[in-house]
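Reminder to self: tokens first, then the designed residues, so the page reads top to bottom the way the pipeline ran.
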């Protein structure tokens, strides 16, 4: 077989079928092992927000290969607690390859010189602080691991364990997990929670666009509250 980096898109579509046939029934840990240590060795990264549920996927990846590149997007609008939590998890899980990605300084000077673009146009703000920096980074990998789950929204209800998005593969090990299974996993593995979860933030993104939610409300209802917006524009991780 050709190496993945040289094959064409039609060949990638055929490879997707093959990967799905070979690995489509594996559990999350076994799938990650095949993808990280074999099929996409040195060509795959996880994008993580280090948000409320990120620890589950980070723990699984750490078990398989703790030196997997973990791309962490620092929009420069994050809670300080998120930065501390990132450091806590890196130490606890033994993650050795966290790559911090930031918005481009020149683009910020032109498009968000006073840091208040989010008050006028959240889509434009997400574009300069999230979408473009991440797109520049992930383009260097053949595949990304995402934390997306089917139950999260109607737009995610059909995602598969392995997908082809343009010329890149997306691996979604948690696609079929339920909220209850995620919550139970944190308990079973005694994983540390993001400190803001206890304070009423079940979904955590940038500070200006995240608010507390009442118990029983949709966990993502605290994101971009009052706006139609539900996604940042690049569908890589659950909480970015
Ligand atoms: S979530 Fe809010 S502050 Fe963060 S990039 Fe998007 S609009 Fe800007």
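Designed residues (240 positions):
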């Amino acid at each position: 077989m050709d190496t993945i980096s040289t094959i064409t898109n039609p060949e990638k579509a055929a490879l997707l079928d093959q990967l799905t046939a070979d690995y489509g029934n594996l559990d999350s840990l076994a799938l990650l092992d095949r993808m990280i240590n074999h099929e996409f060795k040195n060509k795959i990264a996880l994008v993580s927000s280090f948000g409320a549920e990120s620890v589950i996927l980070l723990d699984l990846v750490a078990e398989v290969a703790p030196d997997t590149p973990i791309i962490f997007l620092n929009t420069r609008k994050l809670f300080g607690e998120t930065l501390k939590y990132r450091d806590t998890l890196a130490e606890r899980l033994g993650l050795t390859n966290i790559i911090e990605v930031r918005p481009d300084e020149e683009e910020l000077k032109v498009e968000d010189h006073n840091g208040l673009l989010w008050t006028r146009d959240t889509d434009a703000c997400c574009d300069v602080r999230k979408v473009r920096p991440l797109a520049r980074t992930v383009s260097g990998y053949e595949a990304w691991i995402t934390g997306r789950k089917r139950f999260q929204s109607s737009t995610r209800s059909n995602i598969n364990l392995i997908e082809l998005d343009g010329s890149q593969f997306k691996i979604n090990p948690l696609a079929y997990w339920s909220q209850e299974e995620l919550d139970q996993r944190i308990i079973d593995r005694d994983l540390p929670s993001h400190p803001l979860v206890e304070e009423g933030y079940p979904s955590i993104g940038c500070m200006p666009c995240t608010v507390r939610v009442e118990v029983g409300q949709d966990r993502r209802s605290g994101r971009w509250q009052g706006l139609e917006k539900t996604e940042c524009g690049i569908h890589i991780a659950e909480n970015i």
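The first strand starts at residue 44 and ends at 48.
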